[in-house]
């Protein structure tokens, strides 16, 4: 998406952190060149950016002096402290890009005692008042949650515009899908955290292996639920295969080579859904975050038994399988990074 902006003539520099966070263990290099866009990973992790934004301010201002930006694009609401600090010196508008504005608006996000205490310490209101504070500080806001499309007017506070931007999907131009599919394989790729609802695997994966034609289920991703998957791996042998991390191209190839995908995620998980759509791999879900259309571009189960039934439908109903492939790929084409990049470009020009 950002490369698309760059291709359209937008000059960009990215300030980020080194930690891979939910995407894996370890750190990324302190500097990268992403197709002409300079990435400066100045902070150790996301907590470092939130708690101590000023520690790298001089370096950021040096980057800004060379770039001469017209605006500050702030990704994620907890980075607003850093964006506001930079704005004091640059005097440029802030556009805030959010994953889920509606959840912030309702007070459902950032409600842990630890986060609330940190916000209170820095003079940031918590709960629903946090959303009003963000609208007051930003010049425009963008939400990626499809649920928010119907309430953009309600989300707008302090006369600040709120836009919707689909979650982008990107497939490298030189990527080649697997030539065949493993008909007995199911797959999940994503982090293994309680907020992703991946504890559901403890109940569902045994059912999938014992009551469907699935011969192997592959789980890729880091997180505190990894021991749960490893326990199942020990119980079922090669029928469960766990991988902590894969490079993106290898992950995409594995998705394209699998017969179906399964996601237990309740909120979000849009990246994995988009990757499945792009690889024409039907996806079965146990929760719908108003992102998919049941029996059109995905199958959404009512409960664990219905999950088993849906997977069996994929094996038994050839027409359903093909329709899910076709309709899913059409959804991917609406969310291609280039398409979303064009929409972001239009939003930024409106703000300017």
Descriptive terms for the model:
352 residues; alpha/beta; 4-stranded parallel sheet
Structure class: alpha/beta
Number of helical segments with 4 or more residues: 15
Envelope shape: globular
Strand content: 15-25%
Average pLDDT confidence is: 95
Distance between the termini: 19 Å
What is the succession of H and E elements?
A: HEEEHHEHEHHHEHEEHEHEHEHEEHHH
Low-confidence stretches: none
The percentage helix is: 40-55%
Number of separate strands: 13
Radius of gyration: 21 Å
- Biggest sheet: strand arrangement: 10-9-8-11-12-13
Biggest sheet character: 6 strands, parallel
Q: What's this, in brief?
A:
This protein is α/β, with parallel strands linked by helices. It is 42% helix and 17% strand.
């Amino acid at each position: 998406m950002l490369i698309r902006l760059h291709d359209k003539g937008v000059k960009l520099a990215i300030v980020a952190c080194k930690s891979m966070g939910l995407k894996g263990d370890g750190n990324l290099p302190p500097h990268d060149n992403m197709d002409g866009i300079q990435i400066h990973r100045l902070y150790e992790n996301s907590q470092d950016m939130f708690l101590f934004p000023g520690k790298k301010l001089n370096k950021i201002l040096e980057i800004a002096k060379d770039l001469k930006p017209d605006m500050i694009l702030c990704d994620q609401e907890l980075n607003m402290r850093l964006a506001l600090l930079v704005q004091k010196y640059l005097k440029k508008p802030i556009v805030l890009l959010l994953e889920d504005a509606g959840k912030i608006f309702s007070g459902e996000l950032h409600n842990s005692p630890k986060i609330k205490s940190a916000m209170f310490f820095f003079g940031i209101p918590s709960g629903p008042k946090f959303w009003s504070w963000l609208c007051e500080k930003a010049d425009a806001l963008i939400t990626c949650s499809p649920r928010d499309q119907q309430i953009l007017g309600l989300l707008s506070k302090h006369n600040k515009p709120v836009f919707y931007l689909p979650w982008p999907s990107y497939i490298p131009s030189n990527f080649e899908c697997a030539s065949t599919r493993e008909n007995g394989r199911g797959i999940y790729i994503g982090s293994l955290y309680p907020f992703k609802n991946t504890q559901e695997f403890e109940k569902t994966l045994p059912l999938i292996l014992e009551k469907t034609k699935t011969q192997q289920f592959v789980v890729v991703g880091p997180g505190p639920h990894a021991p749960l998957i490893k326990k199942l791996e020990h119980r079922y042998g090669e029928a469960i295969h766990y991988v902590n991390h894969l490079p993106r191209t290898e992950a995409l190839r594995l998705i394209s080579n699998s017969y179906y995908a399964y996601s237990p995620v309740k909120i979000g998980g849009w990246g994995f859904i988009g990757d499945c759509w792009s690889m024409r791999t039907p996806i079965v879900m146990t929760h719908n975050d108003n992102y998919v259309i049941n029996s059109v571009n995905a199958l959404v189960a009512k409960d664990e038994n219905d999950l088993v039934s849906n997977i069996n439908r994929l094996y038994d109903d050839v027409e359903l399988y093909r329709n899910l492939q076709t309709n899913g790929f059409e959804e991917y084409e609406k969310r291609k990074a280039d398409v979303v990049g064009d929409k972001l470009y239009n939003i930024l020009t409106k703000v300017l």
